[in-house]
Each structure stands twice: as C-alpha cells, then as structure tokens.
Amino acid sequence: MFRRKRRLRLNSVMRNLVCENTLNIHDFIYPLFIVEGRDIKNEIDSMPGVFQMSLDNILRECESLQNLGIEAILLFGVPPQYKKDSNGSYAWNSDGIIPQSIREIKKHFPQLYVIADVCFCEYTDHGHCGILDSKIQSVDNDATLLNLARQSIVLAQSGVDMLAPSAMMDGQIITMRNALDADGFVNLPIMSYSTKFASAYYGPFREVAQSSPNFGDRKSYQEDGANAREAILESLNDESEGADILMVKPALAYLDIVKSIREKSLLPLAVYNVSGEYALLKAGQKLGIIDYEKVMLETLLSFKRAGADIIITYHAKEAAKLLAAK
Ligand SMILES: [Zn+2]
Questions:
Q1: Ligand 1 centre from 143 Cα, in Å?
Q2: Which of 5, 83, 249, 294 is catalytic?
Q3: 196 in active site
C-alpha cells in the first residue's frame, strides 16, 4: 500500500498528537561541583557555563535552579589536595565539603532533591576510585566496599535524598543497601551508575573534579566500550543487588546500551550526558558550525527515545529556559 505518512505531519496539532517522546524539565538532574572556601566561582575552560563553586555560591545557584524549575541536583566534592590521602578518608568526614553542603542546601532549599555521588576518585591522592592493591596494580574491590559503606552512611546522616555510587566496584550496591538498612535508612534510594564505561568523554569532568588518576587508567573496573552483553549484565546485576534506578554513562555513544537495558529491566533508567558531550556541543556553538540550541534539544530527546527516564546534564539550565519558552 502507498501509505501517506505525511498526513500526520502536515500541521503542528497533529504532530503533537502523534509525538512519542517529549522533554520535560522534571527529567533533568543538574550536576554541581563544590570547592572549599568562600566567594569562589571558577569557570571550566572546556565547559563554558559550568563552574567550580564554593558553598555560598552553590546556595545562590540552587535558588536560580529552583526558579528555572529544576528540582534535582547531583553533588561532587572537590577537596583541596592536602586533604586527599591514599584511602580517600575525607569522603567519610562528616564535616567534609559534601556533608556540610547537603546540610546547608537542605536547610535553605528543602524542596530541592539532593543526590550525592559516592566514590573516591576526588578524594584519593592517586585519583583512583578506591584503595589500591599493589599486587594487581589497581583498586582493591572488597576493601573499597567497606569505605563506600562508610561514605554512604555519612551522606545519609547529612540528609541526602539519594545516593549515586559511581565507583564500579563489584558488590557495591548490596553493600551500600545493607549498610543503609542496618542504620535505619531503608527509604533512601540508590541510583547506581550501573553501566559506566571507561570513556574518553570524561576528560573535561576530570579537569573540573580534579580526579584524573596519576597512573594507569580505570579499565580494570569500568566497562569496556566494545562490550554490549557485559554492559547489560552490569546493570541487571545492580538491579538484583537492590539498585532503585539504573544508569548508563556516557550517554550519546552508548544509546544502543540504553535501549537494550530499557528492554531488559523494568527499573527507571538514567543517562549521564557527560562533560565531553557537553564540551563538544559548546565548542561547536563557539565555532558557529551548529545551531547549538536545536542540536542540544535534539540530543537530549534522543536519550528519551532510547529509553531514558532521567537525564543528568550540564545543559539542564539552558534546556529548562528553552522548554519554558515553548
Ligand atoms: Zn570514581
């Protein structure tokens, strides 16, 4: 049959009626990088519009995020070098930058949903995501699990709304869940970075979070970009360990994985639209070679179409303004 598909595209009302996916401000989580000190707001060279901020400026930022309708934030701590050690012990200091920030943000903005990253790469002096095991020249999985549990409890006690473990240690979800439940935090959800690839797209983030490993790479714990079955298994495994929300990171180069996990799990699924993806669009905007706003919205929509419910993105503020103006 000669089907006239264009019948359903000829006017905007019909296009809206048959539209399968839409972007919504409520889909977004906005990442924030917090440094110690006062009155600090350092823009990241490769990520225009993204800043390292001290807590006073973070509180101002939270107000503007709320005014834009953005309801969820994801916090990363950027401690000074002298507070880092081989274990990353500052990560479970209850007076550390993130526990302190959570308390202040929740005091001033109780409606804002505060999520905290759970990992050690910003806190270890070697930049890896846990304690090192010299025998394997990499991270000691089970020793790191104990510390992830400690960090989780401190964050929970600080009043965080959700935890987002990103270390890619085996068994991290069940370890955290058991520790949280034993301390009475049965209602605190875990959004797992369940399928996190060892990706070059993280480059600009490591500049902003000052978390580059000072030797080697993260390929012995993060997922190999060549592997699809293993990537799905990672997320399904976290589901079985008790994760409440799954995630694929990065987003754009791994939309096939997003779609596959969407088909195999009934849990909510997030994508992390990472720093390198953001930086490339910003570079394209600066060079004047793309219509930045349209490309950005098209990119964000592709995540929804692939099956993501939640989008962690540095574009959230710009997208919120554009969506509000529609
Ligand atoms: Zn890490």
A1: 15
A2: 249
A3: yes
Tokens, residue 321: 């303004």
What tokens does 12 get?
Answer: 């905007």
Kindly report the number of other CB atoms within 10 A of residue 228's CB atom. 14
- CA of 121 from ligand 1 middle (Å) equals 4
Q: What is the DSSP letter of 85?
A: B
Q: Do residues 176 and 148 make contact, with C-beta atoms less than 8 angstroms apart?
A: yes
Distance, in Å, from the CA atom of 324 to the CA atom of 270, rounded to the nearest integer, reads 22
pTM of the model: 0.96
Question: Is 53 in contact with 34 (CB distance < 8 Å)?
Answer: yes
State yes or no: is 249 an active-site residue: yes
- The answer on pLDDT for 211 being more than 80 is no
> Please, which residues have CB less than 5 A from ligand 1, an ion?
119, 121, 129
Question: 204 with 46: CB under 8 angstroms?
Answer: yes
- Taking the centre of ligand 1 as the mean of its atom positions, its distance from the CA of residue 64, in whole angstroms, is 28
Answer yes or no: is pLDDT of 209 > 90: no
Closest CA to 251 of 9, 48, 29, 7: 29
Predicted confidence (pLDDT) per residue in 164-185, tens digit: 999 999 999 999 999 999 999 9
Structure tokens at 158: 């600080």
Locate 307 and state its tokens: 């099956």
